[in-house]
């Protein structure tokens, strides 16, 4: 276990963006598989591994890089210590980043589901408000603790670890129209 943590720290130091992209992709794939196996209760034959690969690619190409870059911007412009800094980070994160990121996420998932333009608009109209509201039930507290206690280089890991549950919800919620 110690060797794994040592390797992780070394990779994180040498390749922070790539390491956090791989980590986000892996954890998004895990969230999708949890949704398919335990929420949707699919049999092994019914599992959609292409869907899982799509979730992994969203983590690798969008979620990991975007989150890492965003936290770096917050740290650079707001600082890293102090209660007011943490409150500002949470406010910026939840009022600026989260709404935009969720809109991008739902749109990309819709594109992966081969929805047409008008279907994407309907998907956003139907799913976005509920997902954003549920975001506000979980993420402000997570981010408050994350920004206060966790060093910058580990913040994406913490968020992506908590996001396994969130990604399970997102995977299930955005697949509902396909389940009916």
For this entry, give a set of tags.
180 residues; mainly alpha; 6 helices
Q: What do you see in this structure?
A:
- With 180 residues, the chain is mostly helical.
- Helices cover 88% and strands 0% of the residues.
- The chain contains six helices and no strands.
- Helix 3 runs antiparallel to helix 4, helix 3 packs antiparallel against helix 6 (152-179) and helix 4 (83-112) packs antiparallel against helix 5 (117-149).
Report the sheet-strand fraction. under 5%
Q: Distance between termini?
A: 43 Å
The residue ranges in which pLDDT falls below 50 over 5 or more consecutive positions are none
Would you report the number of β strands?
0
């Amino acid at each position: 276990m110690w060797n794994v943590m040592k390797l992780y720290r070394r990779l994180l130091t040498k390749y922070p963006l790539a390491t956090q992209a791989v980590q986000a992709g892996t954890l998004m794939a895990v969230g999708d598989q949890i949704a398919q196996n335990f929420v949707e209760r699919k049999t092994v034959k019914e599992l959609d591994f292409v869907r899982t690969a799509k979730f992994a690619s969203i983590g690798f190409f969008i979620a990991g890089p975007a989150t890492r870059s965003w936290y770096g911007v917050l740290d650079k412009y707001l600082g890293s210590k102090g209660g007011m800094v943490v409150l500002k980070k949470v406010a910026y994160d939840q009022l600026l980043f989260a709404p935009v990121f969720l809109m991008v996420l739902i749109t990309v998932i819709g594109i992966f589901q081969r929805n047409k333009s008008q279907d994407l608009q309907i998907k956003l109209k139907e799913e976005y408000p509920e997902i954003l509201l549920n975001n506000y039930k979980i993420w402000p507290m997570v981010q408050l603790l994350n920004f206060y206690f966790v060093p910058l280089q580990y913040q994406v890991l913490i968020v992506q670890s908590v996001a396994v549950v969130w990604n399970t919800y997102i995977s299930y919620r955005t697949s509902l129209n396909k389940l009916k």
